[in-house]
Request: fold
Amino acid sequence: MPRRLMHPSRAVAEPPPRVPDRSLTPVEPLPAVAIRASGSHAFVYRKMVEGPVGAAAPNPGDLVRVLDRDGRHLGFALWNGRSQISLRFLSRQEIPPGPDFWSRRIAEAVGLRRDVLRLDQQTDAYRIVHAEGDGLSGLVVDRFADVLSVEVFSLGMYQRIGPILSLLAGQLETAHFRVGVDERVARQEDFTGRPLASPQLPPRVTIVEHGIRYRIHFEQAHKTGFFCDQRDNRRDLAQFCADRTVLDLCCYTGGFGLNALIRGRAREVTGVDLDEKAVALARENAHANQVRLDLVHADAFGYLRQMGLNGRCYGVIVLDPPKLIADRDEIAAGKRKYFDLNVLAMKRVEPGGLLVTCSCSGLLSAPDFLGLLRAAARTAERPAQLLWLAGAAADHPVALEAPEGAYLKVAWLRLGDPGGSATQEQVR
Reply:
């Protein structure tokens, strides 16, 4: 019997996925999990887990009581035995974290941004929750105007995202949300994290940072949609750009280039990115600010080599590549890419010019990054003075117990004459 075809106009649209709404109220008695050794980090890896204790075995995503091997209470964590990070601590207290705990943690995070940092006076785009830095491991939330843009890194957080979003929206008075789970994270956590969005989520929003307008298109955005972590570095770049030529490599949405042009009064700004959609968005951002950026769709390696053949140099170069080291298997190859890129960039900086070079790879430590830059400067035969080493803006706090949260390294280097010697402290 032939299969009947449904007319396109009668096709039933797939309903949007339901927002997970697991209760924030703990269900007693809680399952217990014993670990081999206690530390202060939020993570407990699978190899450190002894196993469930008692008859009630926890399910993935459960809130569990954590014990040491002698049965002493250590705190409460979200459990996922299918993940390499099997436990993510929420609290070290004696009382299980309930609705009051979640409300208090979120209020503290919001208070840091609004009352202490006073970010509402600078921008309507900033990070509200920064995972371990705010005591909510596995959760990252950025605010873009009236939209909450969320990245989830753990099953337990994904299961509770509905109530968490309600708490955030209640404190921030936002109207919309979107939730994403990176494919790599979904594999590591072994769950299907379907993207979520509020019913009336706009396809784009316009935000303002230091007086510059940016458009965020959620459908084609990277991560949460906009890199708030570079806010202070974008601002600080402007003071070095007056009447200079500026090259913004891996420019993404054009943030550094627009600051150089609008606030820094650069003579000429060129932005380069391999992502064609990013180049289009950078152009749209330039139009939104009624300025003109020279934008090139090209690979940064190839572009720098071509500029070398052309003999072209710049007064300021910003090098902000995507994460080149995603896991430990990529460390050696990633370091080589960082080294090669920086050698090429250093050769294209005018004598006395500035190179702002970045790494967002958490697996590359700050000392290793500086050592890599030192080697690159030797290879490029350029004396390099480290003016300062910066990181992410303060709305990306780092827990002292989880120093890898300081993932962003931004080295501000002044390059001397080729073959010459620096007169101040060199990169070391």
